[in-house]
Design goal:
With 297 residues, the chain is mostly helical. The protein has a domain of 125 residues. 82% of the residues lie in helices and 1% in strands. It is built from 14 helices and two strands; from the N terminus they run αββααααααααααααα. A two-stranded antiparallel sheet has the order 1-2. Helix 1 packs antiparallel against helix 14, helix 3 packs antiparallel against helix 13 and helix 5 packs across helix 12. The two termini are 20 Å apart.
């Protein structure tokens, strides 16, 4: 009786075992052997495994799918213009607008405060020098000085004894003296004023400067949002045209060791690969059971 039961169940059980191990070996052969196996100079069939052998083709296929189907220009634009991303970026920019200009410059340029003060001093000196060099007292006198003296002298006693030519000579003499003063002492006079104005600008925030143009927080945020949306819409296509996503992904996969590729595939499809192995056991059991039923008819 026991032998009869064993005879009946042996077929389905053996079929299940064969199906299980057949599929298990098939799954393993996706990854193993990882390299060609040669015998007497000939490469043995099914070596290397399917994935190591087709790694380059797999890399190209994944790259094309990601570039053409999963990460298109429209998808990226939609993501960047989503409410969550947009608000995060606008909030970040708004925070920077509330930071003093000197702190923001130090952060952006990655320089320390002492170096920044030194550079700012150099800029103040340069600006002061340029301002003084741009002042031409002779031109000022030619444009307005002589006419000013003539106007003041008109109707007065001095105006009766001084000709226009004399007034022009006096104006030119004064222009020369004033030009000497400007050239010699102008920078020392102008530089403290420039430094004060630079310090005022330094300690203010970009938001405060925008307030001076009549903008409030709501208008600033609206302007930032409009600028951000326009920037994304106008630049997403040129940027994407210079980024070959398919090639990047292909090169990345090709550069991976086959062990890492195996780990990635198994991590992504562990449940599915396990189902395939278990399905082999189920199919083997069913075929064994069918064979048993046929033999009993």
């Amino acid at each position: 009786m026991n032998m009869e039961i064993i005879r009946y169940i042996s077929g389905p059980v053996i079929g299940a075992v064969i199906g299980y191990f057949t599929n298990y070996i098939a799954v393993k052969m996706l990854f193993y052997p990882r390299h060609e196996v040669k015998f007497r100079g000939h490469v043995l069939p099914f070596t290397p495994g399917a994935i190591p052998k087709g790694k380059k083709r797999l890399a190209r296929s994944v790259g094309k799918v990601v570039a053409n189907e999963l990460l298109t220009k429209e998808d990226l634009e939609r993501l960047l213009l989503s409410e969550e991303i947009e608000n995060r970026i606008i909030n970040e920019v708004s925070e920077h607008l509330s930071v003093p200009i000197n702190s923001e410059i130090c952060k952006i340029t990655a320089i320390d405060e002492e170096t920044y003060k030194e550079k700012k001093g150099q800029i103040c000196t340069l600006l002061s020098d340029k301002i003084i060099k741009s002042i031409d007292v002779y031109d000022l006198m030619d444009d307005q000085g002589a006419d000013y003296f003539k106007e003041k002298a008109h109707g007065k006693a001095i105006g009766l004894i001084m000709t226009d030519k004399m007034i022009e000579k006096i104006a030119n003499f004064l222009a020369g003296e004033l030009q000497k003063v400007v050239d010699d002492k102008g920078v020392s006079y102008v530089q403290p004023i420039v430094e004060d104005k630079m310090n005022e600008l330094d300690e203010s925030t970009p938001a405060e400067l925008l307030y001076n143009f009549g903008l409030d927080d709501e208008k600033i945020r609206t302007a930032l949002t409009d600028t951000y949306r326009r920037f994304i819409s106008e630049n997403i296509e040129p940027v994407m045209s210079h980024i070959n996503i398919a090639e990047m992904i292909t090169d990345k996969i090709n550069a991976m060791p086959i062990e890492k590729v195996e780990t990635l595939v198994i991590n992504m499809m562990k449940k599915e690969l396990g189902t395939i192995v278990n399905l082999g056991a189920v199919i083997g059991f069913v075929l064994g059971l069918v064979n048993l039923l046929i033999s009993l008819i």
